[in-house]
Structures are given as C-alpha cells and as structure tokens.
Amino acid sequence: MAEQPWGQPYPVRPQQQSYGQPWQPAHTPQSAMRASHTDRDRTVDVLKAAYAEGRLSREEYGQRFDVAYKAQTYGQLAQLVADLPAGPMVAPFGAAVPVLPPAYGPPVPGPLPMPVPPRPVNGMAITSLALGVLSLPTLGAAGLGAVITGHIAKAQIRARGDEGAGPATIGLVLGWLSLGGWVLLFLLAGFGVLD
Fold it and tell me: What is the pTM for the complete model shown?
C-alpha cells in the first residue's frame, strides 16, 4: 500500500498491458471506457455492413442493433462485432494503433473529377467588337452593324451560356459612339455650323 499526500493509504494496482485491439472482447482498460453516441453509430455501421454482406440474419441484426444503442462501454460494443471482420471504432485516446506493413502501399486516390470543357466564345460578339473598332476612325456605317450584332450576341449569350459578354459590350459601346458621332455630324450640318 502506498500513501496519498494527505497520509491515507490507497491500494496500488499493477499496470495491465493490453495487446489486443479495442474492439476485441478482451478485458482491457479500454473495454471499460464509456462509449459515446459516435461510437455506437460506428458499431451500427459495422452491423449494417455485415447485414448487407449476408454475415448477419435479419433477426441477429435487429437484436444487435437494439443492444448497440443501449451499450454503455467499448467492451459492450466490442462484443457485438467481435465475430465480424471490422471494428466498431477507432482506437481510443492512448491505445495502441496498429501500423500497416509497407506492403500495403500508399492509399489509392479516389476518382478525379471530370474536366469541364471551356465554353465557346460567341461569334457575333467577336463580329460586334470588330465592327465597333472599324467604325471609330471613319465614323463609318460599321457602327450600325456593331450595334445590331452586339445585341444579337447578348441575346445568344444569355440563351446558350456562351462566352463573349465583354467583347459584345465593347462592340455595342463603340457602335453607339459611332452612331452618336453620325447623329452629331448631321445635326451640326443641319444647323449650318459646318458651312
């Protein structure tokens, strides 16, 4: 017997060493540890898998399912899955975790996501941009073409989901500037300012 700091003796138990896994039905310190809701859910997942694989009958599954949600300790959960190929939970804090030999290799990655093909650029948007650029130096009639093709391009982009909203907008702006220049030119000529 050893003494506590305040002088009262208390029994000293020898250290128990655990060689088994926490889900094995051996009487270890981990088997007396209280189970959580997550541990019960993991055990039920093992039972579901065993039932789906045909390892448990419907009656066995039902009985073990009911007992799993009433279990209070790891040991009680371990008894439910001791004859099944998977354990109910990860190792509790402080328990030895088995290390797989290197022959198993690194984990295999899951399937990669499918690449998304790029969306095509709308041809009318490119045409609107080109006509808008051509209409600026000469204030030519290409501005009207830029406005018309720009509006068509915007409608097609909304309907089809194509790329090209930027070029269509630039073509529209340049086309409207060109048309505005023509209107200003006609107004100035009409009032005799250019004479």
Answer: 0.41
